[in-house]
Amino acid sequence: MSTVAPPPLPPLSPTDRTAVRRGRNRAVVDRAALHALLADGLVAHLGVDVGDGAGRHPVVLPCAYAVDLDGPDDGGTLYVHGSVAARWLVGATDATVCVTVTELDGLVLARSGFHHSMNYRSAVVIGIARLVTDDAERARALDAIVDHMAPGRSATLRPATRKELAATAVLAVPLREASMKARAEGPVDEPADVAAGGWAGHVPLRRTADAAVPDADSPGPVPAHVAARVAALSGVRSR
Amino acid sequence: MSTVAPPPLPPLSPTDRTAVRRGRNRAVVDRAALHALLADGLVAHLGVDVGDGAGRHPVVLPCAYAVDLDGPDDGGTLYVHGSVAARWLVGATDATVCVTVTELDGLVLARSGFHHSMNYRSAVVIGIARLVTDDAERARALDAIVDHMAPGRSATLRPATRKELAATAVLAVPLREASMKARAEGPVDEPADVAAGGWAGHVPLRRTADAAVPDADSPGPVPAHVAARVAALSGVRSR
């Protein structure tokens, strides 16, 4: 048998269901931008369908997550986790889910209500959720979620116990089918509104961290990986 | 005919499908806390189902929103808007949707990967989306969305034109069926991990605003309502 190279990844927005329809000028097609946004984000909003028949409806819940660009899924793997008792999460196994990561970068205050907007970066990933059953992959995914919160931290912790691993469900979503939108500019007003005068502009927003708060049982100074994380998060600026 | 008072609103998590199942200690049942979170949030993640039959799946997109506690829907009304050409949005008319608003307040760095967590406030509203057809309600909703971004701003703008209103779809979701979770504390570790030593704590996160950036055509100083908004957003602190 010959070795067949995998097909190249498409640009973002490759399929009908992730194609950016509205505000097409805002679409981003560079996978590096997707990867950068997923690295910046801390919370994903995971949408799954629950219920049956006419009672079927979406539920959207916030999740910690991590990305492994070398993961086993097409385009790389996005991991989310939760309790094995979380019906909504485990019930999404083998179903199509939607994972959305949004970073809000500013309020855009135009001269008409119609042209008010926000500056943001947002990624939408649609794919079939795979329940991770391999122990090594699950342990790697959980470490990646810890390290996404604070890079370098998982190496400072004891390994997960068998009981902890048994209590934790990990879902993997392929990154192949993804789209991204971004807006990063001031207001775009009607010429007549500009001519009429009046103030318009934007308010940059960013996330910032305050100094780490040790718990009552913590010895010594804040570890270097935590201090570095606080410094990095304090420096995340919007455009 | 006698006047019948409407039934009192239930506490949060009133129905099977919004009941908080996991982390029940995190459930918030006070509607005032829900209203406060919805006032603090700027972006909602709206989940709708798209597609048919076996191809039906959720899509989650970020939206600006506003709340009218005196709105016509049971428990008050949450409004989202978009282009009338946005199929995913308009297609949700009369369907059950899920609106989730999350504020991230901190990273919780425990002594085991298992007990890592985040501090956050998150509201999940599930309800049947109503397409707002009344012109007066639609104009009120759009003003509310502008004022949610910057309180007092809509009164400084010209009214929407008929063309703008015709191009804008507004969906209303009742606030009756809602749940809320919140976490606001340091790590909760296993006693054995505490005994083993090692640092644990949390990193407070908050959103902050930088000074408003006037566009090139803006005369004079930043209006008072914009400066007040920047000051208020700069002061939003996590716990």
UniProtKB/TrEMBL annotation, chains A, B:
**What Pfam families would the database entry show?**
Pyridox_ox_2 (PF12900)
UniProt superkingdom: Bacteria
Composition bias of kind Pro residues appears in 1-13
Protein name as catalogued: Pyridoxamine 5'-phosphate oxidase family protein
Q: Which SUPFAM superfamilies would you find in this protein's record?
A: FMN-binding split barrel
Instruction: Output the InterPro entries linked to this UniProt entry.
Output: Pyridox_Oxase-rel, Split_barrel_FMN-bd
Q: Where is this region: Disordered?
A: 1-22
